[in-house]
Amino acid sequence: MTIDHAARRARLAAALPAHEVPALLVTSPVNVRYLTGLVSSNAAVLVRADGSALLATDNRYIDKTRALDVPAVEAPDVAGRLAAPGVGIEAAAMTVATFRRLEAGLKEGDGKGGGLVPLGPLVEELRAVKDEAELELIRTACALTDQAFADVLPMIAPGLTERALARLLDNRMTELGADKPAFDTIVAAGEHGAIPHHAPTDRELRAGDLVTMDFGARYHGYHADMTRTVCLGAPAAWQRDLYDLVRRAQRAGRHALTPGALAKDVDAAARGLIEAAGHGEHFRHGLGHGVGLEIHEDPFLGPSRTGRLEDRVPITVEPGIYLPERGGVRIEDTLVTREGGPELFTKTTKELLVL
Length: 355
Ligand code: ZN
Ligand code: ZN
Known about the structure:
The protein is of the alpha+beta class. It folds into two domains: 5-126, Creatinase/prolidase N-terminal domain (Creatine Amidinohydrolase, Chain A, domain 1, 3-Layer(aba) Sandwich); 129-354, Creatine Amidinohydrolase, CATH 3.90.230.10.
C-alpha cells in the first residue's frame, strides 16, 4: 500500500480558509514527514490553500526530495526560506526565538510588518484518523511487539535484571525488523511496579514478583505500545485479585471504544470498576492515547478529556493499579476504532502468565 501525500496536503489545504490564512508553514518534523514523506531533522513545508506546496530542507536531505511528489528548495534556514507575511505557523512546533527572528525578517522585507499567524494543531488533527496504509504499518509494529514478547518470555526468570530484560526485548524487536524500540522500554519488578514510568535498574527479578513490561516496536515510523504484567512463581491472593481487577477494567475500556464515544466516557468505563473496588487513588493516569507517527498523539483518553472518537483511530487502553512499596499491574493494548467494534492489534494473551 502506498501513501498518498498529496491527498493529505489537500485535506490540510481545505482546512486553511477557516483559519483565514493563505498557507500554513509546517515546521514539526513529524508533520513534514506526514505531508511529504521526507524523513529529516531539518525541513519545513509551506502548504497553500490551493493545495500546492513547497518543501525546504538543507543539503544533507535535498537528494531525498527528488523522489517526492512536491517541489523542494535547498536552504540552511528552512523556515526563513518559506516564511511570508500572513501565513500560519504551528505554534506548538516553533520556538519563540525562531518566531521573533522570522517576524523581524518579514518586517524588513515588506516594510508593512505583515506578521505570522500562530495556529493550533491542524496537522495533528488530520493525523488522528489513519488511512489503511498507516493501519497496516501499526498492525505490523504490533505483530513484531507480540513476537518479541513470545520469544523473550522463556528467558524471564529469577536473577535476570530489569535492565537485562529490557535489553532482551529491545534487541529482539530490532532483530525482527523494527526500526528501533518505540520508546524507552519499561521493566518494573516487585515494588518498582508501583511506579508507572519506572526506568529499568540492576534490580534482579525474584520469585514472588509481579513484573510489568511496557514496550513496543517502531516500524516505518509507526509505533506500537503494549504492557503485560507477569508473575514469577505462584501469585499471592492480593496479586491475583489486583490482576483480575485491572484485566476487567481493561476489557471494559476496550469495549467502550466505539466511533462517536466521548473520550472521557471510555476512560470512565474502565476507571469506574477500579474506583468501585476502592483503588481509584491508585490509578492516576489517563486510560490511553493515540499512536501513530508519535508514540503519544491525539486523541487522549482521560477524565477531563473533551472530544469524541472517530473511526480508524489507533489508540491504547492501559489501566493500571499501583500500590506504593508493594507493586503494581498494568495491562495495555493498542487497538483501532472501527464501526462494529475495535480491531485488536496487540494479540498477546491477557491471562495472568505465571512463570
Ligand atoms: Zn505503554
Ligand atoms: Zn501507552
